[in-house]
Description:
This protein is mainly alpha-helical. It has 23 helices and four strands.
Amino acid sequence: MARTTKRTGKDKPAVGVSRAPAPVYLLLAVLLLGAMYGRNLSGDTWWHLKTGQWIVEHRALPFEDPFSYTARNPVILHEWGAEVIQWAAYIISPSALAFMSVALISAAFMLAFRNALARSRHLLASFVVTAAGALAAAGVSEMRPQVFSFVFFAVFVLILQRFYERGGKIIWVLPPIILIWVNLHAIFLMGLVLIAIETAIAVISPPEWAKASARPRLASAGPLAAVGVVSALLALINPNGTAPYVYPFHVLGHPAASSLTVEWKSPDFHTWTGRSLLALYAMAALGLASLRGRPAARDFVYVAAFGAASLISRRHGALFAIACAGPIAVWLSSAIDEAASRLAERRLDVLAGRASWGVLAVLVGVLFVWRISDAKGKAPFDYMNTSEVFPSAACDFLEKVDIAGPMFNEYNVGGYLTWRLWPKHRVFVDSRQEPFFDGAFEEWMYASSCAAPGIWQEIFERRGFNFAVLSPSTPLASVLSDRTDWVRVFADDKALIFVRNLPENSSAISSAVSLLNRYVASDDRN
């Protein structure tokens, strides 16, 4: 029976469900597969895999970058553990890596759904909130180490929620988790942020169980603070020492990093992932408006803090969706119950409930069928990584032609070139960013864009580049095409290769032109 009063947002409803039936879990699993098995363009996957391979083969960590000749800063290997795991999955099968990545981020949202249902005891509210959050986070479902962090983050949220409800020693599970997490990704810092938020909330508004103590603030905030300190100290037990604490701020503090890296930009509300995030905001607002009285302070802090973070960075949208699934489901359940109460007066509540689930099932089915159709004929790894946009033919060409370095290349394809051409060729720059700051990173920006008259010539002469791999749309490609001191030896819709026109390169240029002519003739016959 529908409730006839609004919820306060501070306690669980008197009636409701605590477990989802199997068909609901199946529907959610299908939705998550349709959302997370998506196409994400990222050159990072390639250098992650190559780093994992290097670590396994050398049984060491490459603090001095082996893949480039320009890295001037130490390599911060905050993802080394995940890179090894992902390389091992890739060795089994590239498809295994793709499905592992989908499974990890899907598991994070399954945990978020479980938390939402446990808190709201409202099946429909929990499902739609989790679904909107998952769709909003689909843009970060890449085959990269970050997917491990989403699972750990969801586990932290669940454990801290349980401590808030019951107290106990459950939170002492968190330090050992941090000890593992710090070697998988720098997002481990968000686990410490969660502990800090809970500690502050416990000081301001202690949980109910702590109020039976003579010192409720100490009873709740004390253990949280202790766990936070121990976790922060254990996080220092990693090959990089204190570097994982500094790395994110160093990268994000660089003037160009946030503008170049899509995941650190503000969300684009013209995309379907951005609109899903808007839907999540709308659910929170609708739920808040329907509550009787003020929401629980803890819930409001969570939504305000992580909601603000999601507006700053697209990657934080996933953290917002996971951390706030519970609070938003609690709030939204009030609005749904109020609507159901009004429909019950006309005996339409049961019909409306069934219709809601029917519509959700159809929408999930459409998403899943579209995804399967879109992925048809493509290997899972190549589909998820949009592998066809990378310069594979250019790399085939460079593998067959003996052209010496040093090489100039563009930032976006540096990881792929490392994957294909190392150790024969080392890259000039790639999307790891931090190793190249205050050097090759800025030089790539200035040279490829021809930012000022003569700047590319100065950089090319100083670096002594012998050949360059460029995108056809890069301004520098147009400039080199019109010059006689550079020869274009390869061209397709993904890359152009230019070689310096020098006597010592004449043999390489001749063989390259001959090989290129054979390719053209073969294409004409086909």
